[in-house]
Amino acid sequence: MPITDWPVDERPREKLLAHGAASLSDAELLAIFLRVGMVGKSAVDLAHELIDNFGSLAALFAASESELSHIKGMGEAKYVQLQAVLEMSRRALASKLSLHNAFEHSAALKTYIQHQLHGLPDEHLIVLFFSPTLTLIACETISTGNAQHTTLPIRPIAQRALTLNAHSLVLAHNHPDGMAEPSIDDVTSTLLLQERLLALDIHILDHYIVASGAAAHSMVEHGDISPR
């Protein structure tokens, strides 16, 4: 049944206008992006198929052009649109974090970090540098490694923080094939880096771990480290 034949209060666009975007499911939001379905499939049906095929909305955004093109009804144009939406989301979040105290918008901070790291095949360590008022100055990739281990290079992080005149920073790295919990090495190396940077009056406020299909793990929220 085409969406136009659905009850008005069940149609994704009308539901969004009446109750806000947060009231929609992942498939309903994706259906609005797709706009149309295919012969025998509504946009919502196609959206469900895409999410089921890739496992999650996040995995869909991380899919390559060739992976997406294997789905009937998808192709280069939809891939380009998805990537544009993702990049606009990154930039909007970065703008928000650069104008306001990032820790008063912790959900936006966590989402921004997930956008930066989700779907990467290797471990990446990124550092978010903050001003004294906790607005975002920069987010930079500091190192990359294999799927088992990414070290915390003290000198490059310290040098970059001093160059940017950063008051504090947040670390984040991904576990491409693992769980969103820190290893013993993750915790001990973070504590060591905290001690070294504190001598320079640079504070580590948190360290996030990102893994596929899971929310970003905050070491501070889980008591692994304390902000210093």
Can you give a write-up of this model?
Strands 2-1-3-4-5 form a five-stranded mixed beta sheet, sandwiched between helices. It is built from nine helices and five strands, in the order H-H-H-H-H-H-H-E-E-H-E-H-E-E. Helix 2 packs across helix 3 (43-54) and helix 6 (76-99) packs across helix 7. Helix content is 44%, strand content 16%.
How much is the radius of gyration in Å?
A: 20 Å
The shape, in one word, is elongated
User: Count of helical segments?
Assistant: 9
Side-by-side strand order of the widest sheet:
2-1-3-4-5
Global mean pLDDT:
88
For the biggest sheet, the summary is:
5 strands, mixed
Helical/strand content category: alpha+beta
Question: What percentage of the residues does DSSP assign to strands (E)?
Answer: 15-25%
The total beta strand count reads 5
The helical percent reads 40-55%
Q: Outline the low-pLDDT stretches.
A: none
Distance between the termini: 57 Å
Could you spell the SSE succession in H and E letters? HHHHHHHEEHEHEE
Search tags:
228 residues; alpha+beta; 5-stranded mixed β-sheet; 5 strands; 44% helix; elongated
Task: Give a short synopsis of this structure.
The protein contains 9 helices and 5 strands; from the N terminus they run H-H-H-H-H-H-H-E-E-H-E-H-E-E.
SSE diagram, text form:
Layout: H1 12-19, H2 26-34, H3 43-54, H4 57-62, H5 65-69, H6 76-99, H7 106-117, E1 123-130, E2 136-145, H8 154-163, E3 168-175, H9 184-198, E4 203-211, E5 217-218
Parallel strand pairs: 3-4
Antiparallel strand pairs: 1-2, 1-3, 4-5
